[in-house]
Amino acid sequence: MKRSIKFSIPGDPVAQGRPRFSRAHRVQVYDPPRSRVWKRSAGLVARQMMNGAEPMEGALFLRVVIHLARPKSAPDRTVPMVKPDLSNYIKAIEDALSGIVFRDDALIVEISAKKVYSLTPQVSVEVIPL
User: Fold this and answer.
1) Domain range enclosing 58
2) CATH number (domain holding residue 121)
3) How does pLDDT run across 40-59, given as a tens digit for each residue?
C-alpha cells in the first residue's frame, strides 16, 4: 500500500507572485524573489520529510491548509477573504513540492484547500496516493 505524507511548512505562507520579465540580452521570465525564497525553504522542509524517498507517482490527492496570521482588525470569527487568492498559494506549493514529494504536479488530480486565521502562520500539506 502506498503511504501518504503529511507535514507543515513553518512561517508566513507566500503565494505565487506574478512572473517578472528581464530584457538583458533576451527576454527572460523569472519568479519574484519572495516567491523564489519561500519555494526554496518549502522544498527543504519537504526533502527532510521525504527522508531520501523517491517522489510519489500515480494519481494524487493534495490537501492544503493555509494558516494566516490574524490581523488585529479582524473579528474572531471571520475567514480570510483577502488577497492573495487561494489558487496562487496552491500554485506556489505545487511548484515547491514538484520533483521532491511528487514527480510532477500534473499527477495531482484532486485538491482540497482552504485559508484560515491562525496563531501560528504556516502551510499544512498532505499528499495522498489515490
Assistant:
1) 5-129
2) 3.30.1330.70
3) 999 999 999 999 999 999 99
